[in-house]
Specification:
about 0% strand, two-stranded antiparallel ribbon, 9 helices, mainly alpha, flat
Length: about 220
């Protein structure tokens, strides 16, 4: 039996740690793992880059050649002289028409109020901290918005709303007869109300108690 006599070497100084490869850290690593991780991802990334470059090349000159001082589309085209460009002057001059369409200018307060009330109606839906009772207004808002935007007699949206009230009352009263019967009754009775009673009653009430605002045709 032989005994090994080879000398042993022990390092008495520690080597400083080396930096990781560039491809394994920072932005390069993120790009490799998220944008070029496989053939499909690489292909989609390249196509996306080409799409962005194409959009910049197409939209860039259109924005750079913008016209701000034209009073009409014809004047804007004369200024551009066949060059592609954005006619912001037309938007600046007719912003109210783009925003309100052909709605009567003296009644702009109605769509503005409808928009503000829409934000109020969305609040309890989007933010849990808003009291749940505010959902009552959210349910009433479509009828309020209809009345504000189209005007006319207030009795029409009220009669339509009563159809939903009838459905709720029916489904509550008929729940003891089974889910199917309660559901059918809650659907059929409101439909019958809207088809045969809501509009005649609204017209009669409008004649007897004419409450409403100026109607606006669509």
């Amino acid at each position: 039996m032989t005994k090994s006599t080879s000398p042993s070497y022990v390092r008495d100084q520690m080597l400083p740690p080396q930096d990781p490869p560039i491809s394994q850290v920072g932005a390069i690593k993120w790009v490799r793992e998220n944008l070029f991780n496989g053939i499909l991802n690489s292909l989609l990334t390249i196509l996306s880059i080409l799409a962005v470059v194409w959009a910049i090349m197409e939209v860039g000159p259109w924005l750079m050649n913008s016209v701000w001082n034209a009073g009409s589309l014809t004047e804007c085209r004369e200024i551009l002289q066949g060059v592609s460009g954005a006619c912001w002057g037309v938007i600046k001059d007719r912003w109210h028409q783009l925003l309100f369409g052909f709605y009567p200018s003296e009644l702009y307060w109605r769509p503005i109020l409808a928009m503000i009330l829409m934000l109020v109606a969305l609040a309890p839906i989007l933010f849990p901290s808003v009291p749940r009772k505010a959902l009552i207004f959210s349910g009433l808002y479509p009828f309020i918005a209809f009345f504000l935007l189209w005007g006319g007699s207030i009795w029409l949206p009220i009669m339509v709303l009563l159809g939903f009230v009838i459905g709720y009352v029916v489904v509550s009263a008929a729940s003891g007869f089974g889910t199917l019967i309660a559901t059918l009754a809650a659907v059929i009775l409101p439909v019958l109300w809207w088809l045969f009673l809501a509009f005649p009653l609204a017209a009669s009430l409008a004649d007897m108690v004419p409450i409403g605002i100026e109607p606006v045709r669509s």
